[in-house]
Amino acid sequence: MRDVAALAGVGLKTVSRVVNGEPNVAAETQARVRAAAEQLDFRPDIHAGNLRRTGRKTRTVGLVVGSVANPFSGALHRGVEDLAESRGTAVFASSLDDDASRETRIVSEMLSRRVDGLILTTVLKNQSYLAPEQQRGTVLTFVDREPLGIDADTIVTDNAEAAAAATAHLVSVGHRRLAYLGDRAEIWTASQRRTGFLRQLGRVGVATADIPVIEGLHDEASAFAATLRLLDSPSPPTALFTSQNLVTIGTIRALRTRGMHNRVALFGFDDIPLGDMIEPGVSVVAQNPYEMGREAASRVFARLDGDDSPFSTVVIPSTLIHRGSGDIAPPADGLAP
Amino acid sequence: MRDVAALAGVGLKTVSRVVNGEPNVAAETQARVRAAAEQLDFRPDIHAGNLRRTGRKTRTVGLVVGSVANPFSGALHRGVEDLAESRGTAVFASSLDDDASRETRIVSEMLSRRVDGLILTTVLKNQSYLAPEQQRGTVLTFVDREPLGIDADTIVTDNAEAAAAATAHLVSVGHRRLAYLGDRAEIWTASQRRTGFLRQLGRVGVATADIPVIEGLHDEASAFAATLRLLDSPSPPTALFTSQNLVTIGTIRALRTRGMHNRVALFGFDDIPLGDMIEPGVSVVAQNPYEMGREAASRVFARLDGDDSPFSTVVIPSTLIHRGSGDIAPPADGLAP
DNA sequence: ACCGTCAATGACAACGGTGTCATGTCTAGG
DNA sequence: CCTAGACATGACACCGTTGTCATTGACGGT
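The joint structure predicted for all components is written out below.
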């Protein structure tokens, strides 16, 4: 900028004025400055400016998700980005792989970069470590999972209700021997879905004591193995509820391996790509990750714009998509499939 | 930082030393400073530091892709992130939707933020506008598509060769009436793939004049419609080559709508999720986006570490995955399917 | 002719840190 | 006892930009 000023033969502040479109610069001066800036390929350093600028906004938000390679996170990311982009805000994205030990480190990295807001899918059991940062004015918003130990805007899916609805459907088809295949219990969404599943069974009077509840599944491979074990057990379930997209896929592979995909019912949480094209079509609880991202970003920007209403939790409704796998009836004898 | 210094009763510079782990600070002083920093929840402003720091590295890279919601971009992003994370570097990601008008704006946004490196999947026909920036020291790396008008490290897939190989396979199965369904011709990868497709047909003596080459398909819907038109034409093709994941999916939907999915052969470029589970399995050219991302990031960091060898183009090999759809033979009469 | 207003402009401090250098203190060697 | 290092520390300028304020000159009204 110094160079531009010299070349245009004006003061530093005048260049600053031109660059920022401030008023009271003679048209002829403006032209000279612009020409000089062009010639030197000048680009203002946004961070140097932010240092002095009042309000001190970096127009940057951080997004922490499971993995940017996961379609759920990808859609959510896109939702955030679309809103951010329209406000000239850049997005830092980071993957946690639900690894609690990375959370503090990555969040701290982002805070050093002075993000205006943070949109988090948390892993740690407790987010109270963020309180001082929130106090300082950084806008915190949680997506997909509710935080603990801190109060902030939160965007979630109706996990328990949707899981219960899917379970109710399986029961209505006639199933009594169900099984739950889910992610690690520490993950908030996983435990919510399990709760919904079990609560619904309780409601309709299915004894939950005998229902296999398998947890700790985090990828296709572990879900595949767990499903095989279930299918090979002495009294295999007639319907499966899977609590997450990767688990659903691993389970489908296992069902196919055993040739049971048209005989054991399946309802999954999270939509999976091409779920309508495989045989049978995969019935799922479809969340709306794009909308969750948009809503989260929208909350962040509202807060940055000065909204100081009490924190709220927005529940983005999910939809049951019936494609067939959830409508497979239990075998006639009501026992072995 | 001022506050920390005051609280610890030391000078500013001493706090700086402690925070940055510089030597020559008495153990007792260090402890006092750390305690004060902890108490005030002090976090250094990375950008303020970079202002004065020699070398002036922000430890930030920008990633510009098609869409963060696309699984290809997602995997690539993850590849970049994994390497970046290990170097304490944050990643800005932005989606272009292959919209040329967004390219300059988004790139310029990132440059204002003083990214150390930029990993780009470009849309514009010409990237010479980046030359001054490259001169200035910003590391430029292109992924997936070759740049024009500028020299820089580039990571690509063997597009033409792989497309030719897939085409060769379709021909070897007996097909002569093929069709190409592809993205907009301005997109470098799309035109490379078309070239590979047509060149291979030429090589084996299939007259390309009668081969439908449909371009400008950018999403499922347009591919769906285009495929229907092809299938409903007086002399429909017996084999289809689709040049991109979304196009492949739209085409599969169309084939199913017409009940032709087991009678018309299909080879797609880009792997699609669950492609092995639908009927018939989808034969594809599988790229390795994760590896492309990793390699791109690795080039960027090598350059930042001072590597000044001539720019190179790395070709990440792709694999033909045969799952069935590419092995459907043409109908016996050799004409109408 | 005089004065108040207002547009145009630049000098200067400040933002939150780091590089450089001077200063003071302590220790070991002569 | 004296002195050369080595260590510990802070004063100060500076990074690139913006907020504040003072200065200058032109202009309109009386």
